[in-house]
Structure formats: structure tokens, C-alpha cells
């Protein structure tokens, strides 16, 4: 079944996202070929399109540009992440220097290589695809194969709900990265194509996101179990974050509580799964391939990215998390091995500051969670670095997270570039911390049912000391997010949403602050990244203004 789904990913992605060739369009094709007109005729056709649409979020963890996960864009140059190995497209983000400009490859893509698309284009292709599905789903002639009018309505709205959730996901990234962006809610056809887009205010896009997420909350299942069908808790989680972004803490609290009170999901507090009988801790059990899917006992994963069976690469989907975050320890005369997670190349690293946040007894700082040393080919220990003074480019000894360790159980494949493990994308622990933030913003910090209580649920799970209500501040919540979600959360977006990006980068990241290189470093205008020059140049019917500071 999974292999079938991934064939559909490849097939429908090509269908939905190919450019328009007039000669090819006018050429008559046999009806057994797939076009929008004969794909979107029944529920099965829409399922194929849904599977392709779900492919877009997975691209965050792929090497879409060059040798690192695409999502590293929202993780380096923050208080928690830096570019250990600087690439042409990460150097500017790492240092906030002259290389961060409107023509950067990660914004515009590589015009000489169509497979390397810029972030902006990837997200708008996602939106365009979602718009197509939403529009085509309103066709009264579609056979929804529900067996009854109620079944037809359920199938139809489940498809639309997925498309609207993914559209909101894409606009979330766009607005938190670029600020005002064009708002497109209609399918683009030859008749309504335009080159006079305007940048809509963030508030308008937030309103559209809210409506999309509310629809998804209404029509997605309580707990899908099937990883190709998203659950309503994802929409509720993003609604909670959206309401915090809009400074509506009471509404944010309600949506976060809806997730936490869903009996199908709970924090992992006991050992489970494939390494249960081995030394370890509950926190790390949820990151081992074989423990990720709901069917494997994972009750904390709200949104997981599946892959096909380990022994069958056909149709699998590579990811770069290990490649990005695990050091290039082979340069230390150390062999690749499953113990060390397979091949890493250390494109990004956790900042030295993060390693100072933990109590010694915190499981999230244990040897199960953090790689502190390697053993080289001669049997000698190679101790890893973690201090500010050692945050230097290409430090192959840098301590790293073990969240993304995984390789094939085959000595001939230990050094393969990519991972094919199942992975969790969104966790319930994140929702607990959103709830804590919402409660804190309302002055509800108590240890019974206030912010301190929900923070403590996270801390106690990892054997960290509980805190008191008097210790709760926004800064503490952001610190706890770093302890719990480092390398997982879109940290830039969290700090942008809370207005803390510049302040905390200057305080905790001596590279991005400019202190290391005696350069200006991050400035106030870096709260937003530059608008892609390629987009500005193509929009000939209306002038799109560049973000302040990047003129």
C-alpha cells in the first residue's frame, strides 16, 4: 500500500506542477492519460492529489537546494542553531552579513537547475496545488464514492480539509518569513493568470489561515491512525499558535486544550517500542525508527512523515535531518556505524548556549539524547566540543543531537548520504508549551492548572526539576522550547512571532550577533528575510516593494 501511495506522489506531483506548454496543451492525447479533467472525477482521483499535496511539507526535510534540510532556513541564525558548515545559501543566514540579499539561491532557486527551487516558489506551488484541489472538489459531477449523501459529504470535505490545512501551513511559513505576501485563494488558469500581484497585509492572510484551519478542524478525523490522513489536532495546534501570533491568548488556550484533552494523544512518559529492553529514556524512544507511527505505539506524534519498509527503497522519500545535524565525524578517523547514526556532514549545529540550559539529570541532556564522544579506529575516545570558543566553521567534533540517528542495518550502507526513517514532524510537547504561553499571557501561571503545570509535565517526563509559578516568564518558556524542541521547531518563526528574534540572537549566538567576526551581525530589519528578487522582477504589472533594509 505504501509503495502504491508513493508512486502516486511522483505521478500526481508531475501532473499538478508541470509548466504550461502551449503546443503540448493543444495536442490531442488519449483519454487513458491523466489530466485534471479526468483525474478529478471521483474520490480516488482526489485521494491521489491529496497524497501529492502531503508531499510538500515533507520537502522541508529534504535536500531541496544544497546539502542540508530545506527547513534549516528557520533554524540557523537563531539562538539555538548555527551553520557549522557554511554553504553559499546558509552563510548569510548564519552571519546576517552581505550574503543575505534578495538574489540568494534559497529564495529564488537555481535558474540553471529546475530541480533546485527556491523556498518562495516551493510554497506557492503548494498553495496553487491546494487551490486546484479545493476548486475541483466543488464540481457537482464528482463521484465521491461515499455510498450515501452523508458519506459523499464526508469524503468531499475531508479532501478539502486537507487542502485547506496545507494551504494554511504554507502561508504560515510565508508570512512569518517575509511578512506581507500575495494572497491567492483561487485556482490559477489561463483565463485568470496575472502578473500584477500585491502584497496583502499579514492580518488578511491570518484571517484566511484561520478560516482554513477551522474548516480542517471541523472535517478532519479525531485520530486518523492512517498516516496519509491528517488528524484535526494538527489544525487545532496551528490555530493555537495563530491566536498567540494575533495576541488572542484565550482563544489560543482553548485550541491547545482541545489537543491536549484528546484522549488519543498523550506525552510519552514510559519506555516503549524497539529499544524498550535496552538502556534509554522515554523522551528518546519517540525518535527511533520503528517507534514513530501511531501503530507502533507513538501517542505523542501529532503529525508524522512515513516511509516505506526498510528493505525496499522503491518509492522511499529521502530526508536530510541526520545529514544536516550529525557532525562529519568520519573526518575524526571514526568509522560510520549505526551507533553513531550513520553518515553526517554537520551542515548545522546546536549553539553552545543550548547545551548550558539543561540540568545534568535531564534526560534531554543525557548520552541517549546528545552525542558527546566517538571512538576512533585506534580505539581512542574523541571528545566533542560544546563551548562558545569552539563554535568555529567545520568543527567535526561538535556535540550533536541523537534525535535523527538512523542507518540501514547493513555495513555496506552505513555511509549512505540520506536517511529513510519515519520521522515525527509535530509533537504534543509543542502544544503543551503553546498552552503554557497562552496561560502565561493571561496571568495564569499556577502549578495546578496554569503555565507552570504544563511546563512541568514536559520537564518531569525528562527527569528535570519542576518549576514554580513565580519562575514562569516568556523567556523561560522560550528556553524550555529550546530544551525540548531543538532542531525540530521552526525557531526563527517562534522568535519572530514573539518579537524576540533580534534580542535573543544578540544574547545567545555570538556568530549571528557579529561578535565573533567583529561585524554588525543581526539588525532589527532581519526579523523578515528579503523578498525574492526573481518574484519582484516577474511581477511587471505592479511594483512589489522589497522588505526594509534590503533595498
Question: What is this structure, in a nutshell?
Answer:
By secondary structure, this protein is mainly alpha-helical. Among the domains are: 321-421, no CATH class; 428-520, no CATH class.
**Secondary-structure element pattern, one letter each:** HHHHHEHHHHHHHHEHEHEEEEEHHHHHH
Q: How many β-strand runs?
A: 8
Shape: globular
Tally of helical runs:
21
Question: Spans with pLDDT under 50 lasting ≥5 residues?
Answer: 1-32
How far is the first residue's CA from the last residue's CA? 51 Å
Radius of gyration (CA) equals: 23 Å
Strand content: under 5%
Biggest sheet statistics: 2 strands, antiparallel
Name its key features.
551 residues; two-stranded antiparallel ribbon; mainly alpha; single chain; 21 helices; two-stranded antiparallel sheet
Q: Can you describe this structure?
A:
- This protein is mainly α and 551 residues long.
- Among the domains are: 321-421, no CATH class; 428-520, no CATH class.
- It contains 21 helices and eight strands.
- It has helices at 2-17, 22-26, 36-39, 43-53, 55-58, 91-95, 105-108, 119-136, 149-178, 202-219, 232-245, 249-260, 282-285, 321-325, 352-355, 428-441, 451-461, 474-485, 491-497, 501-508, 533-538, and strands spanning 81-82, 301-305, 349-350, 370-371, 373-375, 381-383, 400-401, 423-427.
- The chain has a two-stranded antiparallel ribbon. A two-stranded antiparallel sheet has the order 2-8.
- Helix 9 (149-178) packs antiparallel against helix 10 and helix 10 (202-219) packs antiparallel against helix 11 (232-245).
- It starts with a helix and ends in a 13-residue tail after the last helix.
